[in-house]
Amino acid sequence: MAYTLITANRNYSSWSLRPWVLMTTLGIPFEDCIEPFVSMDNYDAFRAFSPTGQVPVLIDGARTVWDSLGIALYLGERHDGVWPVDAGARAWAMCAATEMHGGFGALRNERTMTVGQRVTPHDVSPRLARDVARLAELWDEGLTRFGGPFLAGDRFGAVDAFFAPVVFRVRTYGIDVGLAGAEWVRRMLAEPAMRAWEDAALAETFREDSHEAEVAAVGEVIEDRRASPS
Question: How many helices (H) and strands (E) does the chain have?
Answer without folding.
Answer: 10, 6
